[in-house]
Amino acid sequence: MSEASGSTLGSDIQAKIGQHLRAMYDDVVRQGVPDRFLDLLAKLDQPKAGDGPDGEGGRS
């Protein structure tokens, strides 16, 4: 929203929106990462067969 249009939010409304967003995202952060995602990340970190330090293994 541009200030020229006169449709800016007051600081009290912005603060209230910020409080609600923080509350919502704090809840998401507290939930943590699901085990299935951690398993997928662990698999991605494992080297594939044929991947060696010399770069062979099909990757460019």
TrEMBL record:
Residue span, Anti-sigma factor NepR domain: 14-46
Organism superkingdom: Bacteria
UniProt xrefs under Pfam families: NepR (PF18557)
Protein name per its UniProtKB record: Anti-sigma factor NepR domain-containing protein
